[in-house]
Predict the structure of Putative membrane protein YeiH.
Amino acid sequence: MISWELLNIIGTIAFALSGVIVAMEERYDIIGVYILGFVTAFGGGAVRNLLIGVPVSALWDQELLFTIAFLLMTGAFFLPQVWFRHWTRWGVLFDAVGLAAFAVQGAIFAAQMDLPLSAAIAAAALTGAGGGIIRDLLAGRRPLVLSRDIYVAWTVPAGLLIGSGLVDQFFGYVLILGGIVSLRMLSVYYNWQLPRRQLPSS
Amino acid sequence: MISWELLNIIGTIAFALSGVIVAMEERYDIIGVYILGFVTAFGGGAVRNLLIGVPVSALWDQELLFTIAFLLMTGAFFLPQVWFRHWTRWGVLFDAVGLAAFAVQGAIFAAQMDLPLSAAIAAAALTGAGGGIIRDLLAGRRPLVLSRDIYVAWTVPAGLLIGSGLVDQFFGYVLILGGIVSLRMLSVYYNWQLPRRQLPSS
Amino acid sequence: MISWELLNIIGTIAFALSGVIVAMEERYDIIGVYILGFVTAFGGGAVRNLLIGVPVSALWDQELLFTIAFLLMTGAFFLPQVWFRHWTRWGVLFDAVGLAAFAVQGAIFAAQMDLPLSAAIAAAALTGAGGGIIRDLLAGRRPLVLSRDIYVAWTVPAGLLIGSGLVDQFFGYVLILGGIVSLRMLSVYYNWQLPRRQLPSS
């Protein structure tokens, strides 16, 4: 289970930092920064536990992770201004890493439970996107999940490859994680879009 | 349990299509259409399972329903333009059918568990409205639940009639379902309103 | 467990009334008033049960509380206009009482479960703020949790004092409850602020 734990830590830290950046963009006070960071970081895991059937109380067993997230968020709040010159890209990057780590983790779990392929795809998407959805709703933003550039579609390969059993080893998980992060960042950079269709709003 | 299953299928399909229509109104891409459709369709059931105490993992046992919803949503996305001439009314209709099917289902469950009448009313309202609330929150819209014309009030008769044991047969369930859909559509058409009271906003 | 029950009743009633006031400010109809009241009142408890691991179905055992909340909300809807002269402050007060009661309750639970101190702090904050977050999301408002004046920070002392075992008696709980309500109301009145930091929005 080392890969499960590792993915959990990576996803949690990345989403915590993405929450901090959104909170500072919205000019929240220091408590607002902690709240948005914690909710983004652990909300993803809570959604995963709810959807997958892990008791939600397992949430409270992660004291080490709470402490790491708290220290990181405090550091980010007091970071010198110069570090934030490229903060927009950092926020998008942290969100991409969180998305990828939790997507792979959700797919691994579904595969281990012998759930059908469609469930693995859904688990990857929902586990990956859960924390970010809560963050955006609380911040009063349009959820990134439904953003203009390609976001949640990149979790589908994770669901397919892991859910079908094609990839079932640590090295493969890392490759998928790196692939998702890269594709997500390229989507933002080049503003890749999927086909869309418009109905006039009522 | 045939009526329970049937109501689940009807509610899921109706909410899936209502999600697709909202997504196209908001000009989401094809993945956004699938996401909003799935979340609306299965979010209602997830809320129901959470509130009623069914394990949420039961969510993943519905592979047939996943496949049906996926094919329907794909079809709707590629439907020729002419079919959408009256799309606004279709969107409202699908939402009404989902509301009615899940409201009846929530009330049946509460009655089978010998929960008190107030719980049957609440279960009908919450199960019926859950999927639509999630859809509207994700789409950044004011939830239909709190809309100007009468919406969730029509679930109260379902809770009363089924929760009190007056209606406990398949034929009665169908009558209530038809009644809710009709009353909801008439509310929209004639813009029926309940009394309201205003306090100046702070 | 008398203090647990009492805190539950106080929190539920206070949040119900705060939901009613928000609903009337937004000019919702009478069903909207009931919905927002119930969701605010019992949403806090549902979030608590979810996070803490109490079965959510325990929600339906509170028939007496449902009835009390229903009667109170009906009364508030028909209250003569003159009573609402100071409604803004009443809405803030009810929300503060709900926040305090549920924060103390969440911290007591975490302490009884021998959860670590960080979990007690988180439980106090999340249990206290849960109902209000749902209310604000449904009403399309920026959550009070992230408001300009100090809100959720006042739950931290409850988590610290109760989670560390320093306070473990009814009288102490009441003192903390009174302290949180007073500090919250003073924050609003004097517009107390915590330090904040701004990044330009992307």
